Amino acid sequence: MFFQQIVNGLTLGSIYALLALGYTMVYGILLMINFAHSEIFMVGAYCGFWILSILPVLNNYSGFILILVFLATLIISGILAMFIEKIAYKPLRRAPRLSPLISAIGVSIFLQNLIMLSVSFQSLPYPERFEIKQFQTTGIVINSLQIFIFCFAITLMILLHIFIRRTKLGKAMQATSQNHIVSQLMGINVNGIISLTFFIGGGLGGIAGILNGMYYGSIKYNMGFLPGIKAFTAAVLGGIGNIKGAMVGGFILGILEAFSAGYISSENKDVITFLVLIIVLILKPGGLFGEQVTEKI
Amino acid sequence: MVEQKKILDINSVTKCFGGLEAISNVDMNIYENEVVGLIGPNGAGKSTLFNIITGIYKPDKGEIFFKNKNINYFLPHQIIAEGIARTFQNIRLFSNMTVLENVMVGRHSRTNAELIEALLRTDGFRQEEKEIQYSAKNILDFVGLLKFGNELAKNLSYGDQRRLEIARALATEPLLLLLDEPTAGMNPKESSDIMELIKTIRAKEISIIIIEHQMDVVMNISDKIVVLDYGKKISEGNPSEIQKDPKVIEAYLGTD
Amino acid sequence: MKFISNKIFLFSLAILLIIIFPIIFLRLNPYTVNIVALIGIYLILCLGLNITIGYTGLLDLGFMAFYAVGAYIAAILSTKGISFWITLPICMLAGGLMRYLLGLPLLKLRGDYLAIVTLAFGEIVRLVANNSVSITNGPKGLPRVGEKIMPIHIFSFVFQDNIHFYYLIFFFVIVSIIISYRIEHSRIGRALIAIREDEVAAELSGIGVARIKSVAFVLSGIFGSLAGAIYVHWIGFVSPEMFTFWESVFLVAMIVIGGMGNIFGVILGVFLLVGMPEILRSSLGTVFIDYRMLIFGMLMILIIIFRPQGLIPSKRRALELHTIEKD
Fold this sequence. Notes:
Oligomer: heterotrimer
Number of helices of chain C: 14
Structural class of chain B: alpha/beta
Order of helices and strands of chain B: EEEHEEHEHHHHEHEHEEHH
Low-confidence stretches of chain B: none
């Protein structure tokens, strides 16, 4: 049971970690909670759904289809996230801090209802294009989808890490999240970096949406809400603004949820997550890896 | 010579942020009826000292006594109630409230109508509201802003906003007023107007500590000057002594 | 002086209209009374939430949790035979106490974190209500089969029809408006608005910010549980789906769109977002209702960017036209 939950937890955690990255990156660079990020997740899932529904089943080319689906969704989700930033958040950069949050809530409502009204309010089954194999060892059941999700997520995270640390753009992102004004003086196009941040965060979120759809086998217009809150909790747990923290936080939360479902009850597993969120924000808002930022008075 | 009463006693106060000592072992005494200039290069810790005095930060070492009471652990609003008020380096007004309302808020610690009295509109409540309006208008008149009473605070000119902040601080009936760069960003005419205002405040027997960078302003108005550098007090004395002090000159200009 | 007596006159006129309204409409279209009574419930809720969001500037995304507390406690007590007039103060007390306890750790948090934590708390309440089958009957809601919510009665008069509840609800709406007005124009109200504008400056102007925030927080909670208790006696039913996060957001939307911190604005917001879709139902069918959240989402974005003070301009602008003289 214990190791089974670890397996489940790592799979869930992969999805949460990918989603959490979007929250933490945006917070790091703009100090705002992108409440609509959960809807990018949802739109990504629907994107994948449409692409997979259109393409006929081609066993020989399944690898190609996979790449296509994820790449296309990455781009579409990323562009959507960028678009939202330009329209709904950028005008509020100088406004009081709650204003972008309220705007984000408005975007979230809008997107959810848009999908609900234009597609369906019912849940749609996710197309099964790939054969899922099951493995069994020492009483633990793992399937190939779980392995795929985990490995894929880890790969993406490693790529992101390399990008942030080693490339010029990545360093520009780090600089901008420290200080906009100084970064501009250094010749960094701050608006461009902000757009890039939303693109990457949104793209990863959209991919997380597909993985979520594949894992649970269905999608619905409101599928983003709970995973969004959980991923945000993960980001806060790891230290909001801290990319490594978001990754670690995602896995911790995934495992926590798996254990709560396994050992307590599946109805109450969400209560546990919300309690974790409240406790972390009250006791240690800086999270595991975050810094305490004090306001200059 | 008449024995002047000490109202503020800062006793070996130290405050650290992370590994840095922002304020290091500072001693300072403020007496009744005195204007003290607090000067020093940028980053010397002057505003931090104001934050410590008004209870935003707690001293890591040392004590602060106000009217012989230890106020180390007092909350800021309690310190205001005791009689210390301040203005801010970057003006902090209640932008979407009117000029009059800003000053009326300053009366909060001198009044006490609670929620119940407000809901029931008791006589005590009504009486107090009248008093609040009356005294607020008087203060606005004193600083010369009465005609803007119904204007939103954010619509005032920069100089008038600083005046309003001072008016709001005066509404708390302070014994000691801390002014944080009151003439920042002002032209010479505006600066001298503010200085005149400060003199009239001083005439009301309110002690003042003023952080300033404009040397002529601060030398003109202060009885005594305290100089901070890197969180330490490096000199104290009357204006002419300070101007000649080599340590002060070095702090501002550096050594060759 | 003239300005004040104008207000009293307008207010009395409004009360007269409120009293006459259902008598006229009952003959034309009884369903309208139902809608307006529902608007009344939302008015009580939003006026309460306005104290937290509008006056104090604290974004509360889980307000429906206290509505739930009021509704469930009223339902449980009522099915045991306890009179409405006793359960009402109990619900209000429970709501207020819970807000007080919640506020102790929460009100120290920064604005956006507070918003998320209230969201989390609201969800916890909903999930607990959904899962504690023994107390709340879980998803099926209360009352259980075979039980009944006691009708409200004053002496021998029993509240049965919608119109009776209309008057009861609007009695409390009037009380809510008076309370909001009296808070806004008082020392406490100014302190709250100062906190909203600049918490640090407020504290350094002598306002005990922590305590005053708590007062506002508790008071608004009482409005919430009051509304819940009345609603459950009116509709006769409560279940966890009635207070999802989106219901809480709906309240926030009404306040933001109508005008934060502005009694008229809040009233307008409620009429617009609750009333309009229903009124248009007769002409446009249910189209508007389905699309309403979509439109409200967009409205929220547009308002907060282009007109953050809400649709109704601040009455303070009107004051600007009067110059004041020394007394």
